[in-house]
Amino acid sequence: MPAHTRRRTFLAAAAFAAAVTTGLSACGGGSTESTGDSGGNGELLLWHGYTEADGKVLQTIVDQFNDSQDRWTVKTEPLAWTSISEKLLTSLSAGNGPNIVVQGVDTGLGYSKQGAFVSLQDYYDDEQYTENDNFYANLVEQVTFDGETYGIPMGTTAFAVYYNPALWSAAGLTEADYPTTVEELVAVAKKLTVDADGNGEPEQYGIALPDQDAGLLSAMLHSGGGDFITDGENRLVSDENVATLEQWQSAYVNDKISPTGMDGTAAMELFGSGRAAMIVNGPWEITSAESFGIEVGVFQWPSDWVHGVANYWYATSMNDSEEELDGVKAFGDFWNSRTSQIEWTKSYYPPNRDDIDESEFAYPIIATIAGFSPQAHYYATGISTSVTDITAETDSMMTQIAQGGDVEQLLQAASDKIDGYLANE
Predict the structure, then answer these.
(1) Are strands 100-104 and 144-145 parallel, antiparallel or unpaired?
(2) H or E element that contains 377
(3) Residue 140 included in any domain
(4) Handedness of CA 391, 395, 398, 404 (dihedral sign)
(5) Distance (Å, whole) CA 272 – CA 270
(6) N or C: which end of the chain has fewer CB within 10 A?
(7) Within a 10 A sphere around the Cβ of 408, how many other Cβ atoms?
(8) What is the pLDDT of residues 47-68, one digit of tens each?
(9) Do 307 and 218 meet the contact criterion of CB atoms below 8 Å apart?
(10) Signal peptide span per the entry (predicted)?
(11) pLDDT, tens digit, 9 for 90 and up, residues 383-425
């Protein structure tokens, strides 16, 4: 389908979306002046939500792309992630949205269905683009919808287990004790849990394990031989999942390895306070722990499947000419070049490609984390509009399980509600 036809299709869908989201548009937090121009002057507007050190590295690579050729100038506009969600559809329908935007797997599917994101299959099929040959295969699979690939890998990483070396050493543990099974991970967490006065409230927890985190839940289920949601199919109820969650329930309730009622932010604060010896997180845990004065070690979640962050460059309906789409693809190829991906490791993200030597990473710990990338997956696939509702259900379910509720009944109740959400996808 030609680019201008795709854009007309989107505008018809966006007219309804704009009516629904007028209130959101009014409170969106970015500039209303677009520096992109769909008239073909060589400028491409890029929206992203990276505002810390990773945003500075991103801008460095954008500047290098702009300096590397004279056909395209990418102009960046950093926005809060919530503002991107609020503004994107209405900005595109008004004709002043971005040509390129960073989004994850979940929104990629929804926006592609609405015509807001256009296919980038040509990027993978055209031999002039060479950097995609080195991508981890799982990265491309996650943004291939109905046989068309819509995203170019931007910032992707596996979650891993980070630990406090001082607490690890105090418990008599060494690198030889890195767990290779869930059972071993729980055993290590028990060894690191300290309840000196025996009152049932540990002074030190073995692990900060959030029970309000759908990604971690998915990793638990897959590690036990089960599944969560794949290709829009709810697989929450199974014998494997019951057994897995009963195992983790015992670790929470009987072994007190982690407090309950935590989301990811609370878990980071607990680890940072020195009251938890381990945490499951992304590489931003490195700088978070550093801000608390804690150095971290890291090892792989003990399974061949772990949840991860997967953000991509998407081409929007603002690209109403093939020339502009060529610019998007050229930028995506530059971003994923060896040189750019080595630069990107300064952001504490591992690269999207597998051919970078350990000596070339900005930090040795990121080279270690990069080794986990082939096992990284988005927590669920095939859902687009019900993500928030589904995760609210599983967060509530998991907190009740972690506090001793009936696993089988809670799984079934959450599954029934999730089926209702998926029926409306």
Answers:
(1) unpaired
(2) strand 376-377
(3) yes
(4) negative
(5) 5
(6) N
(7) 14
(8) 999 998 899 999 999 999 999 9
(9) yes
(10) 1-26
(11) 988 999 999 999 999 999 999 999 999 999 999 999 999 998 8
